[in-house]
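can u do me a favor
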């Protein structure tokens, strides 16, 4: 009986949170193409051809400043006890640090972003070998993240492009002497400091490993206010595979 009540509580709480919860900020996630490709998995160029040696948009992701699963788990523990709360944690943890798939029926229309396609091809290309078609990548990002953004389709992609153009990460790092190289490494702190000085705000950094197992700068998470108008200091730290020194491989 307690388990049945736990499931009722779980789904009722999730139903309430889906209509009442508001995300707190956006991540504008940009990835270095050389680091995407310089792995054991490798990469494939999109239908528009090889992208420029420039940070490319991965996505514009609504995010919570505090994961919601822990709050709901605490309520379950108070009402039902430890066993049911443990079950609730196992079932309800996924996706509670951010909203996702808020409207599966709202699929991306090529017509809505027709005037942005050329800019998206340059600034938001796919490097995945799954399809090689960037529109499928944009459609996935819209379905998973964009439908939770409180933005219309055109506005969602246009705002991301505007933010990327206003804060050119490739130029910011180059201005600090951090340029692509297959031999040079850079201190992680110098990368973070350069981005903070160039944008005026602290960002989160994510690294991956190249084919030889060396750490390389992979993605930069710029944090953006809920109106998608200006950057903010990132309210959350995040786990990464970064070491004290990282590569920025040539693309």
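np, heres the sequence
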């Amino acid at each position: 009986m307690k388990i049945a009540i736990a499931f009722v509580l779980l789904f009722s709480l999730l139903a309430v949170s889906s209509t009442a919860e508001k995300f707190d900020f956006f991540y504008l996630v940009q990835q270095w193409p050389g680091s995407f490709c310089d792995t054991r998995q490798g990469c494939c160029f999109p239908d528009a051809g090889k992208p420029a040696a420039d940070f490319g948009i991965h996505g514009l992701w609504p995010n919570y400043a505090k994961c919601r699963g822990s709050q709901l788990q605490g309520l379950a523990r108070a009402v039902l006890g430890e066993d049911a709360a443990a079950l609730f944690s196992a079932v309800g943890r996924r996706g509670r640090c951010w909203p996702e798939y808020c409207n599966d029926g709202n699929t991306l229309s090529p017509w809505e972003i027709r005037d942005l396609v050329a800019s998206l091809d340059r600034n938001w290309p796919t490097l995945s070998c799954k399809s090689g078609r960037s529109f499928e990548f944009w459609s996935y990002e819209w379905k998973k993240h964009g439908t939770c953004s409180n933005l219309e389709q055109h506005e969602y992609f246009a705002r991301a492009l505007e933010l990327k153009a206003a804060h050119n990460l490739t130029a910011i790092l180059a201005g600090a002497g951090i340029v692509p190289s297959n031999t040079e490494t850079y201190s992680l702190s110098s990368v973070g400091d350069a981005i903070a000085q160039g944008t005026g705000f602290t960002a989160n950094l994510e690294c991956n490993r190249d084919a030889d197992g060396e750490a390389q700068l992979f993605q930069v998470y710029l944090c953006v206010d809920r109106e998608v108008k200006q950057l903010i200091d990132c309210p959350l730290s995040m786990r990464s595979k970064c070491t004290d020194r990282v590569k920025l491989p040539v693309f």
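The domain at 21-66+98-246 is CATH 3.90.730.10 (Ribonuclease Rh; Chain A). hope that helps!!
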